[in-house]
Amino acid sequence: MPKTDQRILALDLGTSSARALVLTADASPVPGALARHKISPAYGAAGEATLDLHGYVEGLLGCLDELQQNGHLTGISDIVLSSQWHSIVALDGSGEPLTPVIPWVDTQTVPLSLDSSFDEHAFHARTGAWLHRLYWTRRIPWLASIVPAASYAGLPDLVLERLTGERVTSVSIASGTGTLDLASGRYDEEALAVAGVTEKHLPPIVPTGWTSSLSPEYARRWPGLVGVPVHPPTGDGAASNVGTGAHDESTAAVTVGTSAAVRVVHPIEGAPELPWELWRYRVDDKRAVTGMAFSAAGNLHAWLTDVLRLEGEHREPVGVEVGSTRVIAIPFQAGTRPPETVPSASGVYFGLSFDDTGADLLAASLQGASLEIDRGLRMLDSLFGHQLEVVLGGGGIDASAWWRRCLTATFARSTTACSEPEVGARGAAAVALGLFPTPGGETSAPHKDDLDRVAELRPRYQTLRALAVQASHELPHNAELP
After folding, report:
1. Which of 126, 198, 380, 413 lies 20 to 30 angstroms, CA to CA, from 373?
2. Cα(369)–Cα(394) distance, rounded to whole angstroms?
3. Mean pLDDT lowest for which of 35-39, 102-106, 284-288?
4. Per-residue pLDDT at 343 exceeds 90
5. What are phi and psi of 92, to 5 degrees?
6. Per-domain boundaries in the chain
7. DSSP result, 235-267
8. Where is the Carbohydrate kinase FGGY C-terminal domain (predicted)?
9. Is 445:30 a contact under the CB 8 Å cutoff?
């Protein structure tokens, strides 16, 4: 079969859905060749968030069954995976799960007792992570206080093991645990000591070029996939950047889904010194991704339109100009990501009056989220020494033309929209197979009047944001560990 006729099977392991889809040889989705399993995390009042591992994996396998039933699992040349970062499962001595999947949104933790000589700034520069509950340096001590585990693994590691029989991880997924020495691509000794484990308790790290194949059980179940190489998973943030077409240090990708992020992919060799405010993970053996993430984005839009019962055209801020609303929204409903320690339930609206409408509140919220993302973009501009080009991607971008215009004005530069919605799957294929996708969408320049209004709004937002941060730490109901 000619290479151009070959197809790629991509598995995308998200927090709200697990998907299996088929891509062409250049990583474009094959029309109709997508199956989705909805994921519903379970939440608790003490900050718990869990995913049912068995249900998750069986749902994903069902997606493959659906693709086969519809004739889409033929001519597959490669199997690639994109996965959420930061998940963890505690395992017993036989490799059986002792806990559900703990995803990034879980806020449970325990305090650490560290030697006074510990230098978190040096640790952050080396691992790209902080000692935050998001990472295994904090997750493992918390889990160890609950269950006597023999080892730990992430969701993508266990999915890969289920498919191939081999429990390994990639340098990209390992970097999201906060236990990787970014420069060497090996587990960091100090991070392991903080977590209270050794390398033998964690999945071995395999190089980007490693492949395996389906176990005999699944080779019988999906005959068209017999002998097809299965590639190591790529963290969803890294995959999304590459999938939008932002695969070098000239371009930042802004992706807006449930949460949001701004990131730049660059070589790990000679990487600029990492500022304290930014994180850094690995894309593959040769590249890293540096950026900032934000907890309020598409979830903010979905929440507010539901609360205000905004439907149809009113799911956009109809009649409100970008930057014009007098209401200032600080989008801390889900708190902030590290190194800031603003807890959840800290969202604030300033300047409300009786003549404000649902459209005003929605515009203020989207504007606030845009200004948050802009903080990260400007830090990346400074880090890489030039104004970065910007590619916009993700479901939130696709859903709101007003938000795209708002982001473009807030960034004060032209932006290019990625025309492909499945950027994670596309990026996983690109990383595994050495492809370089392009955005493919329209480029928009900021409107002058929008620029002027946002420039006037910005200092007010920054002042009120500082007040919201201060208040979040002074209110007693928000007293939680970072």
Report:
1. 126
2. 15
3. 102-106
4. no
5. -90, -175
6. 3-232, 245-478
7. EHHHHHHHHHT--STTEEEEEESSSEEEEEEEE
8. 253-432
9. no
Q: What are phi and psi of 18, to 5 degrees?
A: -110, 135
Structure-token pair, residue 21 = 């889809």
Is the separation of the CB atoms in 85 and 281 below 8 Å?
A: yes
Cα dihedral 89/212/11/74 (nearest 10): -150
Cβ atoms of 432 and 421 within 8 Å: the answer is no
CATH topology of domain 245-478: Nucleotidyltransferase; domain 5 (3.30.420)
d(CA 260, CA 211): 31
CA distances for 214 relative to 1, 161, 250, 323, 423, angstroms: 21, 10, 38, 53, 25
pLDDT digits (tens, 9 = 90+) for 54-91: 999 999 999 999 999 999 999 999 999 999 999 999 99
> Which residue reads 């935050």 in tokens?
132
Q: Is the pTM of this model over 0.90?
A: yes
Would you give the distance in Å from CA 326 to the centre of its chain?
32
d(CA 300, CA 364): 11
Residue given tokens 């995308």 in the structure block: 12
**pLDDT tens digits, residue range 164-219?**
999 999 999 999 999 999 999 999 999 999 999 999 999 999 999 999 999 999 99
CATH number for 3-232 (one of 3.60.15.10, 3.30.420.40, 1.10.150.120, 3.40.250.10): it is: 3.30.420.40
